[in-house]
Specification:
Blueprint: H1 3-11, H2 18-29, H3 35-48, H4 52-63, E1 78-83, H5 92-100, E2 105-110, H6 120-125, H7 136-146, E3 148-152, H8 159-169, H9 177-190, E4 195-202, H10 211-227, E5 231-238, E6 246-247, H11 249-260, H12 266-282, H13 289-302, H14 304-315, H15 321-324, E7 334-339, E8 344-349, H16 351-363, E9 377-380, E10 387-388, E11 393-399, H17 403-416, E12 417-420, E13 430-434
Parallel strand pairs: 1-2, 1-4, 2-3, 4-5
Antiparallel strand pairs: 5-13, 6-9, 7-11, 8-10, 8-12, 9-11
Helix pairs in contact: 1-3, 2-4, 2-8, 4-9, 4-10, 5-12, 5-14, 9-10, 12-13, 16-17
Length: 435
């Protein structure tokens, strides 16, 4: 088998076999296939696409390019959720403890934030003492003992994806539905869970800007999961404005704690309850989604979900007193109030601009080497649909930067709010569930 023949075949829009895809992934991972041939095939895939069977084959090959986590020693149904990335998305901090408090086993490997989106690991590490560097045996033991653990991905997990993603980033081949879907799903499937819930976001702060593109990606990933015998479902959720009010690590952890205390922003709470209901149905803990919603609401009100979060934080070395008393968290030296210069109804809050602004304040990374300021971020005071009078507070800006550095960011945040004269319809946070 020769790589050039595989490239030619895909260039002519012919289907690749599992053997041909295995040859490519194996050869590229062990460096016997050079970058220039791999990039040629990626470009052919961008231009010609892939059939469902090819995408499943590609995902399988990438999944087995390194270690595959065996969670069979964990009793019960192992569940997982994955978000395609957004602004203010602290969902795992609530949904994980929520479903674990009802008997689901959440064994989750998460990533860090880069660019305008935040990462679950960074949020967790803003809790003093908490470690996400847990060995696989300890990971399994923790999930068996308390039902939940969230850790960083091991270096040996899906090495093919790490190499391919870096190559795609510099060869204009990132935006390909088969390559995006196989990249996400290979990592999720290699993590070993029985069920997967995908939160596929669309809008200004999401990778997928339109609901149509998000639906295609979601259906592709659900097809991959089902093709590899995993119960996989997807939600299409709105990221045209930030999720909740808080953007930034400590600020988001505090908002998650508030939600686990039975409060929290309406849109964030609704997303968490919907996600939990689907996961509970997948785990056979709830006989229907409606029953799952009732169970989830109950756990937020009775304190069980919060107790499970405290248990997870403690098990991973975190200081539980910060969860019991969120006011203990440090805040940034500068908290600047942004006010409205005109009256109207909030019609749009550009999630991308808010996410970039939070990053520039210190809450995120422009490059992998950047160091995060856990206290930095933005707290919105108005959301889409709210009425604003002149002088009303639009947002609080938290930063440790000097005036000359944060002043341009303030203008960006202010301009992210678009006001209309007429009342604005509030859109649902969850548009559709694909299964």
């Amino acid at each position: 088998m020769r790589m050039v023949e595989i490239i030619e075949k895909k260039r002519h829009a012919e289907m690749l076999t599992q053997e041909e895809i295995d040859f490519f992934i194996s050869g590229y991972t062990n460096a016997s296939i050079p970058d220039y041939q791999a990039s040629a095939l990626c470009m052919a895939i961008v231009l010609q696409g892939m059939e469902r069977e090819e995408i499943v084959a590609l995902t399988r090959a990438m999944m087995y390019s390194g270690d595959v986590v065996d969670l069979s020693r964990i009793a019960g149904v192992k569940v997982d959720k994955h978000s395609t990335g957004g602004v203010g998305d602290k969902t795992s901090l609530v949904v994980g403890p929520l479903v674990a408090s009802l008997g689901a086993k959440l064994a989750k490997m998460s990533g860090r934030g880069l660019g305008h989106t935040g990462g679950t690991l960074d949020k967790l590490e803003s809790i003093p003492g908490l470690s996400i560097a847990i060995s696989i045996p300890d990971f399994e033991k923790q999930v068996n003992d308390i039902g939940i653990a969230i850790i960083g991905q091991t270096a040996a997990l899906v090495p093919a994806d790490k190499k391919l993603y870096a190559l795609r980033d510099v060869t204009a081949t990132v935006e390909s539905m088969p390559l995006i879907a196989s990249s996400i799903m290979s990592k999720k499937l290699a993590s070993g869970s029985d069920t997967i819930l995908l939160d596929v976001k669309f809008g200004s702060g999401a990778f997928m800007k339109t609901i149509e593109d998000a639906r295609i990606l979601a259906k592709t990933m659900v097809d991959i999961g089902q093709g590899l015998k995993r119960d996989t479902r997807a939600m299409l959720t709105d990221m045209d404005q930030p999720l909740g009010y808080a953007v930034g690590n400590i600020l988001e952890v505090r908002e998650a704690i508030d939600t686990l205390n039975g409060r929290g922003p309406e849109d964030f709470r609704e997303l968490c309850v919907t996600a939990a209901a689907i996961i509970l149905e997948q785990a056979k803990i709830a006989s229907s989604r409606a029953e799952g919603r009732l169970l989830a609401e109950q756990q937020l009100q009775n304190g069980e979900a919060l107790a499970k979060f405290k248990q997870m934080v403690g098990a991973q070395g975190g200081d539980v007193s910060y969860i019991e008393h969120p006011e203990k968290f440090s805040l940034a030296h500068h908290i600047i109030v942004l006010t409205a210069q005109k009256a109207g109804y909030v019609a749009h809050i550009d999630s991308y601009e808010i996410g970039v602004a939070a990053m520039e304040l210190g809450a995120g990374r422009a490059t992998k080497e950047d160091v995060i300021d856990f206290t930095a971020g933005i707290v919105l005071k108005k959301k889409v649909g709210h009425h604003v009078a002149i002088g009303d507070v639009l947002a609080e800006v938290h930063t440790n930067l000097g005036l000359e550095k944060y002043q341009p960011v303030l203008n960006k945040i202010h301009d992210a709010f678009v006001l209309n004269d007429q009342p604005v319809e509030i859109k649902p946070i969850v548009y559709e569930v694909i299964e």
